[in-house]
Amino acid sequence: MATEEQKKANLVRVYMMTVEGLVKGLWDLFGEGAYAAMETFGDELLEVMQKEMGLEIGGENVHEEIAEVGRLFVDEFGFADKIELVEEDKGHAVIHVDGCHGYNLTKKLRALGIEHPFTCPIMNVMRATIHKNLGLEVHEHVDARDDVRGSKITFKFEG
Q1: Nearest-angstrom CA–CA distance, 137 and 43
Q2: Exposed site from 109, 118, 137, 145, fewest CB < 10 Å?
Q3: How are strands ordered across the β-sheet holding 92-98?
């Protein structure tokens, strides 16, 4: 019989296999349209961060919104080592994520043919924040970065 630790590890493995299968199915079905399928996830995680983690948003610009969400993903979740806004103007923003703890999932998904980790929680919450608080339509895209075990997230804004 498995120990309690083995049971927990097996349970996590089953959950991860479930997630991988769902993500692969979404990508196979929708391709790049799978980004839109994750909007609800971003909205819901944003709400959790506001209610349970003290996320205060409502800044007047994209920089403030991205910085606060990034801070929580680093300081409260430990989901990444560093999140940095590297480019910003009225129409777009580029974020670099270094030392992402979702990187192993990204590698597995890439092996399945999914080049863009559209399930990225950082990207999805930032999109939700920008849309909800600044009223901008947001088009997002993410590329894995092997050099830093992270990603490059690009947002384009309209409105």
Answers
A1: 14
A2: 137
A3: 82-88, 92-98, 150-158, 137-145
